[in-house]
Amino acid sequence: MRDDPSVIALVARVVNGDQQAWNEIIERYSPLVWSICVRYQLSRHDIDDVGQGVWLGLVEHIGKLRQPAALAGWLATTTRNECLRVLRAARRYDPDGLPAEDLMPPDPDATMIEQELIEAELNAALRAAFAELSPACHELLSMLISDPPPAYAHVSQVLGIPVGSIGPTRARCLDRLRQSPHLADFLSDTAGDVGVREAGR
Amino acid sequence: MSMVGAGLSDDELLAALQKAVAARQAVPAEFVASAKNAFAWHNIDAELARLTYDTIRDTGLALSNRTEAASIRALTFTSGHLTIELEVGAESLVGQVVPAQTALITIQPMTGPEIDVQADEIGCFSIGPIPAGQFRLRCRSAAGFETITGWITL
Prior knowledge:
The complex is a heterodimer.
Chain A: H1 5-15, H2 19-39, H3 44-61, H4 71-89, H5 108-131, H6 135-144, H7 152-159, H8 163-178, H9 185-188, H10 192-200
Helix pairs in contact in A: 1-2, 2-3, 2-4, 2-5, 3-4, 4-5, 5-10, 6-8
Chain B: H1 4-7, H2 10-25, H3 29-37, E1 47-54, H4 55-59, E2 73-78, E3 83-88, E4 93-98, E5 103-109, E6 115-119, E7 124-127, E8 135-141, E9 146-149
Parallel strand pairs in B: 1-9
Antiparallel strand pairs in B: 1-2, 2-3, 3-4, 4-7, 5-6, 5-8, 8-9
């Protein structure tokens, strides 16, 4: 979340020219940028344009971020601004055509961005925790979250474990996931409530 | 206060994980790759010229109309110091640096060797054949300013 020490460390490495750290930031946050573009219903061409603006902007600004830990917030805001820029450039965004301010919910865009941000940070933490599970747990949970969900008999056959032990192993692996330090921030963060419930649906 | 650890049942946690993994999988590989490539800019002094106009984007001109004479694709890149105009012809690109000045234009493909062309005293240059893949243009003006366009795919 906002004071994630791993983000601060990544930013420091990027400022020192570490491409690997940059790649980790991209892996972690490209879904945030992507999902905001999707919320603005941009074409693929426009999303690439926004992406270019956001990432080049980050290259330029990453050494000047006053709060490196707030990187995700900076990305969300920049992505929103880039989306609006692209929409304006295409003349598809006409501020005069919008209803009067008192007829609109209070800044729907900002609310949407905040939701995407909370969700993206939870998702990134979940993926990081997931990546560090034991290979056996990773394999089992990967199968269980595939779409459509596989029958236990199939899981048993593929992984070579008895059907009867899938349930207990699943519970044990999910417990390990819960205990991951990546998710620790979400235990104490007051802003986590909406995001966790949203993502848990 | 709800918690990931204590607040979610196993089913909810698994569903949250599924959603988190799906959110990453929804991002196209090329989008991620070009984001990673953007880091190449961190030690480049040149100024970025952003795409500020594209007939396809800004007029909704469809690619299928490109063969019609009236619908030549035009792109404009703008930086703080100059503008680079590009027109996509049948077999070549015709460009102009504005304000008019001599400049060295380098075509930098994502993969493959770079090619230099010279912009004349009114800033005009020509690139042929049209680069096949993603590329960008680097412009070194006689006055010493360096400008690089964003990545272009035609």
